[in-house]
């Protein structure tokens, strides 16, 4: 049986752990509820996309073997940009699939054409900008740069991203996704990059949370009148 002095020390430790961990427990609960009550497809922005879009079939394409690629080809993908076919070769250069001419980057007009194919027709473009870098907390992190940012009118603060170098429609971001992303950061406790589930802070708080719960069970056990009555009955019978 734990003596009174140790019990008081345990209560004090439990109380302070609760204060320290309480806010994070709330954030874990709130974020978990949000994740479970939201449609992940809507978070991905599927409601804004033209999910039925398929690039048209292309004809009279030059053979990839005729392209002027000195190091050879180990990756090849056909892209359609503003109704024109291009080969995306070795993940670093576009070539016109009709003429074989290299293309260093796509224009703003071509980016708008790409976005219009992948987004719903009724969306109205508000502005087009470009970004050359994105930090660890940017909504376009870990994707190809530079890129065009196409903003749309409306309360959702909707944006579509098209990479300049390969002309690929990359992703969409909107208000609910940003809420999800913030709560995801609080859930993983990765305050540097948001997506790492193996942070030291998360491991420490998880361990302290377990200690807090276990100390609560111990405190209940040593202070419960029901447990004391059961112990007395067992002692009498023995």
Protein described:
Helices cover 42% and strands 17% of the residues. It is built from six helices and eight strands, in the order ααββββαββββααα. The chain has a four-stranded antiparallel beta sheet. A four-stranded antiparallel beta sheet has the order 5-6-7-8. A hairpin with a 3-residue loop joins β2 and β3. α1 packs antiparallel against α4 and α1 crosses α5. The longest helix has 34 residues.
Keywords:
single chain; 238 residues; alpha+beta; four-stranded antiparallel β-sheet; 6 helices; 42% helix
Topology:
Elements: H1 4-37, H2 40-43, E1 76-81, E2 84-89, E3 93-96, E4 102-103, H3 108-118, E5 125-131, E6 147-152, E7 159-163, E8 169-173, H4 175-188, H5 200-223, H6 225-237
Antiparallel strand pairs: 1-2, 2-3, 3-4, 5-6, 6-7, 7-8
Helix pairs in contact: 1-4, 1-5
Q: State the helix count.
A: 6
Molecular shape: elongated
End-to-end Cα distance, whole Å, is: 18 Å
Order of helices and strands: HHEEEEHEEEEHHH
**Rg from alpha-carbon coordinates:** 29 Å
Instruction: Profile the largest sheet.
Output: 4 strands, antiparallel
Poorly predicted regions are: none
Beta fraction of the residues? 15-25%
* Strand order in space, largest sheet: 1-2-3-4
Mean pLDDT score: 86
Count of strand segments: 8
**Helical proportion?**
40-55%
Structural class: alpha+beta
């Amino acid at each position: 049986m734990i003596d009174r002095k140790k019990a008081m020390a345990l209560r004090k430790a439990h109380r302070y752990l609760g204060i320290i961990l309480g806010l994070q427990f709330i954030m874990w609960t709130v974020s978990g509820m949000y994740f479970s009550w939201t449609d992940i497809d809507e978070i991905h922005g599927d409601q804004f996309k033209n999910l039925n879009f398929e690039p048209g079939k292309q004809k009279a394409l030059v053979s990839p073997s005729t392209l002027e690629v000195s190091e050879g080809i180990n990756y090849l993908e056909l892209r359609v940009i503003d109704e024109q076919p291009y080969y995306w070769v070795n993940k670093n250069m576009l070539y016109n699939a009709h003429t074989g001419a290299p293309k260093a980057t796509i224009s703003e007009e071509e980016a708008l054409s790409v976005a219009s194919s992948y987004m719903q027709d009724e969306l109205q473009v508000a502005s087009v900008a470009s970004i050359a870098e994105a930090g660890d907390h940017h909504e376009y992190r870990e994707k190809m740069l530079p890129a065009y940012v196409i903003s749309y009118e409306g309360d959702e603060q909707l944006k579509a991203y098209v990479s300049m170098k390969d002309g690929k429609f990359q992703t969409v971001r909107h208000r609910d996704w940003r809420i999800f992303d913030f709560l995801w950061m609080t859930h993983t406790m990765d305050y540097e990059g948001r997506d790492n589930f193996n942070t030291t802070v998360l491991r420490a708080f998880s361990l302290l949370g377990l200690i807090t719960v276990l100390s609560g069970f111990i405190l209940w056990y040593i202070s419960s009148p029901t447990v004391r009555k059961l112990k007395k009955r067992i002692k009498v019978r023995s």
